[in-house]
Design brief:
The structure is a single chain. Helix content is 12%, strand content 50%. It is built from one helix and five strands, in the order αβββββ. It has a five-stranded antiparallel sheet, with helices on one face. The chain is globular.
Length: 101
């Protein structure tokens, strides 16, 4: 990982994650109690047949409404950010990254 390209360190993680939440949550406007629980750190994940992907990993907590309109409770989520986009969320690569291999 010493010579890997991680992209620029995200200055404001919430600004990077919020567009992702708008895409994946049923009611993204309902997000409350958003808190970054770990500062971005360099990390790597295996993609496809083991192709390494590098970026900045962070954890956040938030509460949001489900399809029934009720809040689900405060939950922790993990993300990998690269070049201003979420590329890995809660154990899965997002559509922002196409794995090779």
């Amino acid at each position: 990982m010493a010579g890997a390209d991680f992209g620029p360190k995200p200055e404001n993680v919430q600004e990077v994650i919020t567009p992702h939440l708008r895409h994946v949550l049923f009611d993204p406007e309902s997000v409350s109690l958003f808190a970054v629980t770990s500062a971005p750190e360099k990390c790597g994940k295996k993609c496809g047949m083991g192709t390494p992907v590098y970026g900045w990993c962070t954890s956040v907590e938030y509460n949001a409404k489900n399809r029934l309109g009720g809040y689900v409770g405060l939950a922790k989520h993990s993300y990998m950010v690269r070049n201003g986009k979420v590329i890995f969320a809660d154990g899965l690569f997002t559509e922002n990254l196409v794995c090779g291999g």
